[in-house]
């Protein structure tokens, strides 16, 4: 995976995102933020990197529509 981001957030990234250290607290913080996650059998939390990127992405601007004549006013 050279030059490629990992599929899941790293433990450090999870701590930074949630502000929490313990796995249970991380999961509660993620639920409160509406971020999808899974708890692994060992209790650690898995969060897809792409989901977080989508959640925090700036909304895309809608393309401007060209002004149209109001034909019903004619």
Automatic annotation (TrEMBL):
Residues 8-52 form the DUF4224 domain. Residues 54-74 are annotated as: Disordered. It holds the Pfam family DUF4224. InterPro entries: DUF4224 (IPR025319). This is DUF4224 domain-containing protein. It comes from Pseudothauera rhizosphaerae.
């Amino acid at each position: 995976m050279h030059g490629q981001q990992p599929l899941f957030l790293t433990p450090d990234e999870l701590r930074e995102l949630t502000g929490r250290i313990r796995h249970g607290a991380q999961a509660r913080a993620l639920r409160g933020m509406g971020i999808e996650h899974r708890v692994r059998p060992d209790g650690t939390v898995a969060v897809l990197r792409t989901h977080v990127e989508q959640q925090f992405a700036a909304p895309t601007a809608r393309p401007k529509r060209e002004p149209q004549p109001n034909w019903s006013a004619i």
